[in-house]
Each structure stands twice: as structure tokens, then as C-alpha cells.
Design brief:
single chain, mainly beta, Immunoglobulin-like, five-stranded mixed sheet, 1 helix
């Protein structure tokens, strides 16, 4: 109260309690005029309601009933819609002294940004002292939109617009408009679209291909903007939110391909024409209990003498499925609504018999049947133990094993412990399955005393495979008197209870050392080779982390084996017998030791009993031979290359052999049992068989003669 003459505005700004940033702003204006006297008034005219962002807005102002020689002033203020601040430079004045009873003027508003605008024009009277007196205020508004371009010149970018209403009733057929803006004449376009529900599940999809011709290009009168229109319609959509995306492509005839042009999307809701709930009709009851049925209705439109009629019929059947007409019942509830509101209706069904009983109904709005449905209740016998555990889902439906939830938000489980004393113990075990190693892990354990109802929602779970077990123990907690086991369900992935074994070898991926190799599953020594020696990348030494292969099968791993093949006659691993040395040290030479122990000798240098080199020696040496020497005839001579002999061979004894080292195994048997003696020289390279025979004969004759001490 007590406001002065003039224009006044009230503004309001909305904040939340977590931020200093405004969420919304609005304002309203009103005028205080003199009760009598002032008759001056002002009007403004803006030619159009909508302008493009590069247009100049022209404003015409007229003032009437002016007094001659009186000074007047017009104040102009330009506001953004929903913004508390004035448009920059959006305030100005026109001052003049009237010489007639009316005044007119016009002025331009330079191009503005895209948005909505309010123009406020205020007329004042100015007295001799310069004081202003408000006379009148006028408002007008306009919008500035993005410039559409000139599709007629084909210089505007082609793009796609997908739009519809934000809300549809379930009695409607939602329509979505997919419009191609500024298509090029003669070009071929394709729009592909897909409609998904709130869970991301595809409900419907489709496409359209066309060539831009005059028949499918729409023009707005006086506007060069043009587009090709494509509408899609959806029937029988259930309640919920939906998302539609469109993709625009153009055809390239040169390479016979489609090229992406643009995409756009839209979200909309499908709501019930009449929102209603019926409770108490779904669920499980015990024999003899009473069911209370409640029906509530909320129209999602403004009723105007609208009639409603809810017709229901409950058919009762016994446990053998036979109809029980005497217990069946029906009814009708009718009402008329003129304003927003709700309607409530209820009835009871007493002494329920064991069996399946179904409530069918229809809802009529202005005599038109809009909804029909059926809900059934199950009545079971009282358990013999008088204690039981029931699992419910979503307001009364019995939870079935292997139930699937699309997401954690859908999980709504009730576990009810029935007919138990206050001293009994109830326990709930919740386990999650790991399909990679085929194990269950207990996540939650809940305990309580007496009767109890436990509610489980999605916040307690994650996507995967779950199981719930529940027990009731007696008062001493020593005996289970009721249980409900193996209530398994999946969230997100319906296959999350299936063992993951990528290679199909029977070992879960989490326990398989080789999850993609069906011939291997364990690696005891951790060397990267599987324990199954016959499989791919098998380990010949599964307990030795340093060995895994044995190429020559000699029982020695390739990493430690000095020869993974065979030695040749020259003692060379995998050799070709071409590197053996003769007694002169020449590879593959022909020099041999004669009977007198001389390399490449002719046997003529052997001393006889009198010390003459007649080659007829009969007396063996009296002293033992040195290391790496052996006896031939009466002489100690060096062992052949690749052989050894210990010192002390007795010339009168039988040890006249040189042993072959394991490293120089000339026979390739890898032992030191091979030997070279006076009887084995024919095995040496380049030793002729004849000379070998002569040497052996000479040795035999000398051994047979009387030895001289």
C-alpha cells in the first residue's frame, strides 16, 4: 500500500541451499494511476512479434491528450525475458515540449541476440522545477530468432530437426517429426531412426530414403526456409520415457556410399490418461485371511463434468480350479469429476479359500472403455510348522527363482518371517556369484529375533548373479525350523549366472592359467608352459621353472643340455665326421701310428733286445707309462687325439687302453666306456685295416714271448 503513481515491478529469484547461482527468475509489473485528472496516454507499436537476429526492430510511439506548452518525457527500457538486468544500452529518453495535443515518433533497435524481449515505454509530465509526474506506461514484446538463411540459393547448411510434444497420453498415438532443413534439389537423402525406452532397449526403428523434388518440399509463405517432412507414429506405447534419435545421410553416386550429414534427438513421456492403482489384489494369502482391495484414480487432464465408471468382478476358484459362484462377487463404482482431484474405492474379501482368485476390471471415461486388466491372488494353506519365510516382489508377487531385473533400480524384494515367536532367530544370507572362478561370496548377513519383514532394494546390489537364503532357528538356536533356500536372480546381464570358460576346457577363466588355450589349464612351475606335455606349449619338465623342452629326448632340458642332438665320430655335436684329427693333428688326415709308436712311421724303428732298431723288439718297457700314454709292443706311446689315460700303466699288465672322454666321445654313445687300444687302432681315422692287423699280430707275438724283467 501507499505506492506512488507510476509503473512498478516485482521480481523474484529462486535459489537452492547449495549454490549462490540463481535457478530461475521472473517478474510482473503493474501501474498506479491517478484517481482523476491526468488523461494523457501513450501507445507503442512493434510491427512483428518475431525478428531474425540480423533484423532491425522499428518501434513507433504515440502520445495523446497532451497539454500545449507542457514539457513531457518518454523513458524507454528494454528487458530480456526472465533476466533481471536490462539489455546493455537498453534505456533511453525522448524529451519535448508539446505544441499540439499529440506526439508521434519512431526509432530503431539495432540487431539483437537471439532471445525474447520486453519493451517498456513510460510517459512523464515535467513541471517548471524539473519534477517528473508519471502519466502512463505501455508494454510490448517480441522475439529474436536465429536467421533461417536462404535455402532458395542453396547456400544454407543442410540439417535435421527431430521434435515432438514432450508429453503424450497413453490414449494418444505419439508422433515425431523428422524434418530435413534446406535439402539440396535433386539430392538423395536417407533418415534412419531408432526409438528406445528409458532402459536403452530398442522399441522400434526404421528409415526413409527419398530424392528432393517439389512434391516433398514444403514452403512457408513469405519465408525462403524449406524442408522435407517425415513423420513417424507410435502405437501402444506403455507408460514411461522414450528417446528417439535420427541420423541424416546423403547418397554419393560417385562411390556408391552414404555420407553422414547430421543427427538430432528428442525425448518424450507417455503418461496414463488416468493414473490409477489397485492394491491388495496381487499377492499371496493364507487360508481364511481377508483381502482388502483398494482402488485409487487420478486423471491426468482437467475434468469438465467427466464421467468415470470402474467395473470389477472377482471370480473365486478352489484348489482344483473349480469356479465357486457363491463366493464370487462383482461391483460398479461410478462418479463425475469437474476439477482436479482423486477418487478412492475399496472392498474386502473375507475367509479366502485355498486356490487362485482373479479380479478383472475395466475403467470407462465418458462411456469409452480406456483400460482393462486382470490381477490374481493366491491363497495357500497354513504351513504345518506354523513358521515360514516368504519372498515377495513388487507389492505382492511371489519372487520366482532365476528372476531377472533389467537394472538395480528395479530390485524390490520383501522377505517376511511369518508365525514365529519373539525368541526365534531369523537369518538372511546374500551371496554374489563370480562366474570367472565358479565361486559364491557372502556379501550380507542379517540376523534378527522374532517376526520380521526385511526390505531389499537396488541400493544394496550391483549388476550380476545373486542368491538369497533365509533360515529360522528355534529358541535355542540349535535347530532350523523353517528355511527358504536358493532364491537366485540376475541384475543387468541375464547370463551372469553362467560359468565363464572362454576356451571350453572345463576350468573357469579365473582358475585357468591359459584361459584361451583349451589344451592347457595349469602351470605348476610358473614358466609359462602348461603342465599338459601333450598340449599346445606343453612343459616337458612341469616341476622345473628353468626347463620346458627336451628336443633330443635324452632327459636333459634344452637349457642345460650341451648337445641337443648326437656326437659324431670326431666328438662334435651334430657333426658330419669331417673334423677328426689324425696322429699328426691334421683334420681328416691319413697319418697313423706304426707298431713302434711312431706317427706315420713304417715300423722299422723298433729296437730289438740288443738296442738295435731292427723292428724286432721283444722286451717291453720296464717302467710304467706316463699319463696319456699307452703300450704298443715294447713302447709307451701317446694316446690318440681325443683320448686320455691315467699314469702308471704297467707294461707287463693288461691295461694298455686309452679311454675316450665324454666330451670327445668318438662313438657317440656319451660314455667313457669307449676305448682305443692296440686292438682298436683300426677305428682311428686313416689307420689302414692291414696295418692294424699287423700291429695286433706283432703285439700278440711279443706278449707270447718270455718277458725280460
Amino acid at each position: 500500500s501507499g505506492l506512488p503513481l507510476g509503473s512498478h515491478c516485482i521480481s523474484a529469484t529462486l535459489y537452492n541451499n547449495t549454490s549462490s547461482s540463481a535457478l530461475d527468475f521472473d517478474y510482473t509489473c503493474f501501474y498506479i494511476s491517478a484517481t482523476s485528472g491526468a488523461s494523457e496516454e501513450i501507445t507503442i507499436v512493434i510491427a512483428n512479434d518475431t525478428y531474425s537476429e540480423d533484423d532491425i526492430v522499428m518501434v513507433s510511439i504515440s502520445a495523446y491528450n497532451l497539454s500545449s506548452n507542457m514539457s513531457y518525457s518518454i523513458k524507454l527500457r528494454l528487458w530480456n525475458y526472465g533476466v533481471s538486468n536490462l539489455v546493455p544500452s537498453g534505456i533511453g529518453y525522448i524529451n519535448w515540449t508539446a505544441n499540439m495535443s499529440s506526439f508521434s515518433d519512431s526509432f530503431p533497435i539495432l540487431p539483437l541476440d537471439v532471445g525474447g524481449y520486453d519493451l517498456e515505454v513510460i510517459l512523464y509530465k515535467i513541471d517548471a522545477q524539473g519534477n517528473q509526474t508519471w502519466l502512463d506506461t505501455e508494454w510490448d514484446w517480441f522475439d529474436v530468432e536465429e536467421a533461417p538463411g536462404d535455402c532458395g540459393n542453396q547456400d544454407d547448411m543442410v540439417y535435421l530437426e527431430v521434435e515432438s510434444y514432450e508429453f503424450w497420453m497413453d490414449t494418444d498415438t505419439p508422433s515425431v517429426y523428422l524434418d530435413t532443413i534446406c535439402p539440396l534439389w535433386g539430392s538423395t537423402y536417407k533418415i534412419e531412426w531408432v526409438l528406445e525406452d528409458s532402459a536403452g532397449i530398442t522399441i522400434e526403428d526404421g528409415s526413409k530414403t527419398w530424392i528432393v523434388e517439389a512434391i516433398n518440399v514444403t514452403y512457408f509463405p513469405g519465408n525462403p526456409h524449406q524442408f522435407s517432412e517425415y513423420d513417424v507414429h507410435f502405437e501402444n506405447l506403455s507408460h514411461g520415457s522414450y528417446y528417439i534419435e535420427g541420423i541424416l545421410s546423403t547418397y554419393n553416386e560417385l562411390n556408391n556410399t552414404w555420407a553422414y550429414v547430421d543427427s538430432d534427438s528428442w525425448e518424450f513421456m507417455v503418461e496414463p490418461f488416468v493414473d490409477f492403482s489397485i492394491t491388495g489384489d496381487d499377492g499371496v494369502y493364507y487360508e481364511g485371511e481377508t483381502a482388502n482391495i483398494y482402488a485409487d484414480f487420478w486423471p491426468n487432464f482437467s475434468p469438465n463434468n467427466t464421467s468415470f465408471e470402474f467395473i470389477w468382478e472377482l471370480e473365486v476358484y478352489d484348489e482344483n480350479g473349480q469356479w465357486m459362484p457363491l463366493l464370487s462377487m462383482n461391483g460398479t463404482h461410478a462418479w463425475i469429476m469437474n476439477t482436479w482431484g482423486s477418487e478412492h474405492h475399496s472392498f474386502t474379501v473375507a475367509n479366502l479359500p485355498v486356490g487362485e482368485h482373479c479380479l478383472s476390471y475395466s475403467l470407462r471415461v465418458d462411456a469409452i472403455e480406456e483400460y482393462t486388466g486382470e490381477h490374481c491372488m493366491t491363497v495357500i494353506s497354513m504351513p504345518d510348522t506354523n513358521s515360514s519365510i516368504m519372498f515377495w516382489h513388487n507389492g505382492g508377487v511371489i519372487l520366482n527363482d532365476m528372476h531377472h531385473y533389467n537394472s538395480t533400480a528395479d530390485v524390490d524384494i520383501v522377505i517376511e518371517f511369518i508365525h514365529v515367536s519373539e525368541n526365534t532367530t531369523g537369518e538372511i544370507y546374500i551371496d554374489i556369484y563370480n562366474p570367472y572362478n565358479n565361486t559364491w561370496h557372502t556379501i550380507i548377513v542379517h540376523q534378527h529375533q522374532g517376526s520380521f519383514t526385511h526390505y531389499l532394494n537396488g541400493s544394496m546390489f550391483a549388476e550380476g548373479c545373486w542368491n538369497i537364503d533365509a533360515y529360522i532357528s528355534d529358541e535355542s538356536s540349535t535347530q532350523t525350523i523353517a528355511s527358504h533356500l536358493g532364491e537366485t536372480f540376475t541384475i543387468g546381464d541375464s547370463q551372469s549366472c553362467v560359468l565363464i570358460d572362454s576356451d571350453g576346457d572345463g576350468t573357469p577363466d579365473g582358475l585357468d592359467a591359459f584361459p584361451t588355450n583349451p589344451t592347457q589349464w595349469s602351470d605348476t612351475d610358473g614358466d609359462g608352459y602348461g603342465d599338459n606335455a601333450s598340449g599346445v606349449n606343453g612343459d616337458a619338465f612341469p616341476d622345473d621353472p628353468n626347463e620346458w623342452m627336451d628336443a633330443d629326448g635324452d632327459g636333459i632340458g634344452d637349457n642345460a643340455d650341451t648337445c641337443t642332438g648326437e656326437f659324431d665320430a670326431c666328438g662334435v655335436c651334430n657333426g658330419d665326421n669331417s673334423t677328426c684329427l689324425d696322429c699328426a693333428g691334421i683334420p681328416n688326415g691319413t697319418a697313423i701310428i706304426d707298431a713302434c709308436g711312431v706317427c706315420n712311421g713304417d715300423g722299422s724303428t723298433c729296437p730289438d733286445d740288443n738296442g738295435n732298431n731292427t723292428g724286432n723288439q721283444t722286451v717291453e718297457p720296464a717302467e710304467p707309462c706316463l699319463e696319456d700314454e699307452f703300450v704298443i709292443g715294447n713302447a709307451c706311446i701317446p694316446c690318440p687325439v681325443g683320448t686320455t689315460n691315467e699314469a702308471g700303466d704297467d707294461p707287463a699288465g693288461l691295461d694298455t687302453m686309452c679311454d675316450i672322454d665324454e666330451e670327445d666321445d668318438t662313438q657317440g654313445n656319451g660314455t667313457e666306456d669307449d676305448s682305443v687300444s692296440s686292438g682298436g687302432l683300426s677305428g682311428l681315422p686313416g689307420f689302414p685295416a692291414t696295418l692294424a692287423f699287423m700291429a695286433m699280430m706283432g703285439a700278440a707275438i711279443m706278449i707270447g714271448r718270455k718277458k725280460i724283467e
